[in-house]
Design brief:
116 residues; 72% helix
Length: 116
């Protein structure tokens, strides 16, 4: 663990790494928000009038819960053709991988106390 930077260059390099991580986290959370929005839309399309009920299901869910819920709900939409299902399956797989990368990055031990 470090508590101060060795010099200005060290500080700038470390902050660049941390800034990139922050940008990734924000983009990742936008993916999660988009999944929540898709789930809400599917519930409304199916006739659910109380959006609060769908919010109870997903608001505290992490990426895995959202991905699983979205995949399950999507599978119940009967009007989707094989091509749509193939693309959604690929998208959900990419989201799964993205969640794995996110967890690896956020739970990694970051050593920023040395010169790069």
């Amino acid at each position: 663990m470090f508590y101060e930077y060795d010099n200005d260059e060290h500080e700038n390099k470390a902050k660049e790494v941390l800034s990139g991580l922050g940008e990734f986290v924000i983009a990742f959370e936008r993916v999660c928000a988009a999944m929540r929005s898709c789930i809400f839309c599917i519930f409304r399309k199916a006739g659910l009038q109380n959006q609060g009920l769908s919010q109870v299901v997903v608001n505290k869910a992490a990426v895995e819960g959202l991905r699983t819920t979205l995949g399950g709900i999507y599978a119940e939409l009967r009007e989707q053709d094989k091509d749509d299902r193939k693309h959604v399956k690929k998208l959900l797989a990419r989201i799964d991988k993205l969640g794995t990368v996110r967890n690896e990055l956020l739970h990694a031990e970051w050593f920023l106390n040395y010169d790069y």
